[in-house]
Amino acid sequence: MRIAHNISGMNTSRNQGIVKTKLGKSLEKLSSGYRIVRAGDDAAGLAISEGMRSQIAGLNQAMRNAADGVGMVNTGEGALQEVHAMLHRLETLAIESANGTFNTVARANVDLEKQEILEEIDRICENTNFNENALFDSGKPPLIEPPEASDKVTFQIGPSGEETMEVTRYYMGSTALGLRGKDGNTDMELGTPELANAAIDTIAQAVQAVTVVRSEFGSAQNHLDHTHNSLSVTAENMQASESRIRDANMPDEFTQFTSQNILMQATVSMQSQANAVPQSVLTLLQNA
Fold first, then answer.
1. Which segments of the chain have a pLDDT < 50?
2. Could you give the CA distance from residue 126 to residue 276 in angstroms, rounded to a whole number?
3. What is the DSSP secondary-structure string of 130-151?
4. Inter-axis angle of helices 43-97 and 193-246, to 10 degrees?
5. φ, ψ for residue 154 (rounded to 5)?
6. Which helix (H) or strand (E) holds 187?
7. pTM for the full model?
8. Do residues 76 and 125 touch, judged by C-beta distance below 8 A?
């Protein structure tokens, strides 16, 4: 029996410290829900998990970009839907004016409505924007061959720099559609049956031009919808994979916690027993 060094107590204290550390880690995992709380828990797993988290964040932002793109092309397509309606009205006015039963006063009234329609077409094409980004170029096109492309709008639809999509921005307005001259004067006239008949063909070309642009917007929307769905599935699968690496298996962790908790109680009890051994030496000394 020794009193200078309590080897049993030292051994018990060392084991108690080990158990306490393991118990603390189990508590961290149970309270956070993660198997990997710090790099020391699984360095390789942490590296893979952080890479996945970065990719997931990119996928989620790309989905928001695609949704914004859908909103943008819907805005443009909706504006052109009204332009189409006004062009159809112009066509009706031209057919009316081509009829020989119309007199000068009636044709003057038709011309007044035509002017208002052209002004509204210009207003819509000049002011249609998405987040202050103009959807149409309302300037004068170099050539009046509707629909004439101006430039492109680029959408970022993936987590990497190569995953982009372009939508053409067109010249739009009464001049770009061939309904007016480049100087702003009205080329399309409805004042006589002959002029009205000629205007019918001009309006038909404008209707076709708007149809082409609307079709491109519709194709872009379908593309973006499919892209959004694909990104959503990819992000979901990536999140599931990251969860399997990073998240804690709660039943297993609780089993470990229970085991370490029992060991902690045992080490506390043994610590008390180890400290009681030197006391027996004092008892011998007292009885000597």
1. none
2. 93
3. ETTEESSB-S--SS--SS-EEE
4. 170
5. -100, 130
6. none
7. 0.76
8. no
Q: How far is CA 67 from the centre of its chain?
A: 6
Question: Can you tell me the distance from the alpha carbon of 267 to that of 276, in angstroms, rounded to the nearest whole number?
Answer: 14
φ/ψ bin of 91: left (φ > 0), alpha (ψ from -120 to 50), beta (otherwise): alpha
CB 82 within 8 A of CB 123: no
Give every CB contact of residue 283 below 8 A, 6+ residues apart in sequence. Answer: none
Distance CA 50, CA 27 (A): 23
pLDDT value of residue 287: 65
Angstrom distance (rounded) from CA 252 to CA 256: 6
Q: Are 177 and 210 in contact (CB under 8 A)?
A: yes
Of 79, 60, 225, 220, the C-alpha closest to 153 is: 220
Which two structure tokens, joined as six digits, stand for 144? 């009046």
Reported as a single tens digit per residue, the pLDDT across 84-104 is 999 999 999 999 888 877 778
- Per-residue pLDDT at 5: 63
Place of tokens 């190569």: 162
What pLDDT score does 3 carry?
58
Query: Which residue type sits at 288?
Result: A
Contact 188, 209 (CB under 8 A): no
In angstroms, rounded to a whole number, what is the distance separating the alpha carbons of residues 201 and 180? Answer: 14
pLDDT of residue 248: 84
- Cα(229)–Cα(234) distance, rounded to whole angstroms? 9
| Alpha-carbon distances, residue 260 vs 22, 29, 38, 164, 253 (angstroms) | 7, 14, 20, 53, 10
Give the whole-angstrom CA distance, residue 247 versus residue 249: 7
Tokens of 66: 């695609």
| Calpha distance 277→288 (Å, rounded) | 18
Q: What is the pLDDT of residue 134?
A: 93
